[in-house]
Amino acid sequence: MGIIYYGDYLRKIREGAGLTQERLAEGIINLQSLSRVENNKAGISPGTFQALTSKCGAPTEVFPLFPYWDDFNSFYELYKAEMWLGAWQTKEAYNCLHEVEKTGFAGNAIYYQKWLYYQAALHMRNGDTNYKEIMSVLQCALKITKEKLLFEDSRHEFLTVTEIMILTAIAKISFMEGNNSDCLLICSQLSTYLENVALSYKEKSDLVLGVQKVYVLYLIQNQEYLEAMTEASLLRDNSLLSISEKHMIEAAFLFGLTKYLTGETKEGIHFIKTAYYSGEAIESQFATVANEILNILNVEIDELENEIISSEKKNDYAMPDIDRKVELRTVECDYYSDDVITLGKLIHHKRKEQKLSMKVLCQGLCSISALSKIEKDVLQPDIYLARSLIQRLGMSDEPFTFYASERETRQYRLERQMTGESRYNFQNVGNILDEMKKEITKKDIIFNQFYTNNSIFYGEGIKKKNLLILENIKNTLPDFSVDRIMDYRLSKYELSYVISYCMMLRREVSVTKAIKGLYKILDYMNQNVIDDLLKNTVIDIVMATLVGDLDVQKRYDEIIDLLPMFKQKIVFGDMYCLPYIYAGITDAYIEEGNECHINRYYKYTYYLFEFNRIKAGKAFLENVKKKLGQEIDL
Fold first, then answer.
1. Distance from C-alpha of 631 to C-alpha of 634, rounded to nearest angstrom
2. DSSP codes joined into one string, 91-121
3. SS3 of residue 341 by DSSP
4. Could you give the CA distance from residue 130 to residue 124 in angstroms, rounded to a whole number?
5. What is this structure's pTM?
6. Alpha carbon 34 to chain centroid distance?
7. What one-character DSSP code corresponds to residue 494?
8. Residue 270 contacts residue 634 (beta carbons within 8 Å)
9. CA 398 to chain centroid
10. CA distances (Å), 58 to each of 11, 48, 199, 271, 414, in order?
11. Do 46 and 53 form a contact (C-beta atoms < 8 A)?
């Protein structure tokens, strides 16, 4: 489907949901604007489109077409704020929200609503206990699109994703304030509602997990411990399999707490510790939040006394002024206006901003002529070409879902499955590869490259994998070599293939050459314009692989030299890679004889392994004992 005809899609899903134009437009957009959009006579902000589609209970596919630059910047910064909040990094989230505020929320009520919700979420992640003020912010946010909403009738409403998140947060604050009846009512209504909507897998799983966390708290408060443990067990399993990691720490904590309360004391304390130490390992306020929950539940765990001390709040964030006047307007646009930011204009602007030639940007992906037509909006690229061009410009394509054919949609789904299953359900990788192979045609250069890299990397009995991976990289990066990486622009997946190549160098050639290649990748990422959303997807695996290789060669000074990178906080975005990084740091501190840091980092490492269900934890502890020549205390 062409971007210009998304009005047809909107009308189709509205009618499928049984909504009138009046009902859909209510609280989001004026009726005349919605009519023009559905008739393909006007465009709207992606944020507004997202609200409309989710209200219809359909996946919130967001197209790259923005009324003007402030709209694009607000949309993108809000997405970054969500990423940082998911990683418990409140200062970085606050900075993103400040950037949105500077644009005046692009005059968009939907952006202002999201901004208010994220402000409330920031205070909750920060361990703030001024629940009355947080509740006021959430209620203000909800009233932007739902002036009157009865909790007991929520399941019969048509709710946007943001409204569901706000209601879930209201349920959580209701619990914290002791209002268990509202907490249960909202959780029950949202659970029923979510069973019947056709949101994307990522959106729906995130929302379901959010509601499930609050419901477990309600069950514990009502001393329904066995049911709470059943729910918490599902919560933990599903949080590990979720594409997002934002629920994992709380899920582990609640699972451990329910184990403890049902008499499985030892195992319960173990899981609670995995949550506390994992939260401390990413410099979050999780201990503050968890201790407050224990206080509200009136649960004392003597075995944890003095084990984890709540961090002092590093930032004192002011509550947003909900009484101020905010100038908001309906955000619609003329497709052909010079102010409209299309995909082509976005690519052209970012390329010119970085003084990047067409040749470097498009090499191996498409011809210069094709790129010229894309930038002029004469040619609409397929989903994989569009994503690769955006990634090579240092941006993440994650905020966008490009309209595509059914075949491209199936390819995209399989790609996401491969990314998730390769971590927590390795035995299913072969089945996914078989399905991917069936979808490949001669035109699918980029998708075929992704399939080939994974087939080589996970294949058994394949010799000289490093050379095969390098040849595969050259399909889109002609004559590529790691030594000349600065001569190229790489997409996220091309970067991941180069990392795979370095991993195979370690196994098949030499650790020294692997380290050299990984340093080259770090130089590339530090010297090119790569925003946090994109960097978040690759930096952790680079760091984990590099630190592991340096550890093998006992190059401990170099591991210590990498520690300043942790100030960027971006390395905290992937909990799965973190124990491998901390394992090397632990060894470096053992070599230094830094007892204080040794005690902290071996606990971080062990509990992060356990947190991620990685079996390496016990072997790691044995190695630490051997090096220290003494027993260690967990």
1. 10
2. HHHHHHHHHHHHTGGGG-HHHHHHHHHHHHH
3. strand
4. 9
5. 0.90
6. 31
7. H
8. no
9. 9
10. 12, 14, 5, 36, 20
11. no
SS3 36: helix
Q: Which two tokens stand for residue 162?
A: 């943001």
Across the chain, what does the average pLDDT equal? Answer: 89
**Cα–Cα distance, 560 to 558 (Å, whole number):** 5
Instruction: Enumerate residues 6+ apart whose C-beta is below 8 A from 617.
Output: 579, 605, 606, 607, 609, 610
Over 60: is that where the pLDDT of 422 sits?
no
Token pair belonging to 32: 């005349």
User: What confidence score (pLDDT) does residue 413 get?
Assistant: 80
| Beta-sheet strands, E only, within 7-91 | 43-44
Amino acid letter for position 347 = I
- Lowest mean pLDDT across 134-143, 305-314, 351-360, 390-399: 305-314
How far CA 51 is from CA of 10, 113, 160, in Å, comes to: 11, 11, 5
Q: Is the pLDDT reported for residue 355 higher than 50?
A: yes
Decide: helix, strand or coil at residue 616: coil
Angle CA(570)–CA(575)–CA(580) in degrees, nearest 5? Answer: 95
Give the span between the Cα atoms of 594 and 596, in whole angstroms: 6
Task: State the amino acid at position 313 in one-letter form.
Answer: K
**Which residue is associated with the tokens 């045609």?**
441
Helix, strand, coil fractions of the chain, as percent rounded to 5: 70, 0, 30
User: Phi/psi class of residue 377: alpha, beta or left (left: φ > 0; alpha: ψ in -120 to 50)?
Assistant: left
Would you call 233 helix, strand, or coil by DSSP?
helix
Q: Where are the alpha helices (DSSP H) in 109-200?
A: 109-125, 131-145, 161-176, 180-195
Closest to 279 measured CA to CA, from 246, 235, 322: 246
> Which pair of structure tokens corresponds to residue 272?
């609670």
The β-bridge relationship of strands 332-333 and 43-44 is: antiparallel
By mean pLDDT, which of 1-10, 91-100, 334-343, 459-468 is the weakest? Answer: 1-10
Q: What are the two backbone dihedrals, phi and then psi, of residue 44, each rounded to the nearest 5 degrees?
A: -135, 165
Residue bearing tokens 């005059």: 107
Locate tokens 């997990």: which residue?
209
- Helix count and strand count (H, E) for the chain: 31, 2
Tokens of 166: 């706000």
- DSSP per-residue letters across 254-303: HHHHHHHHTT-HHHHHHHHHHHHHHHHHTT-SHHHHHHHHHHHHT---GG
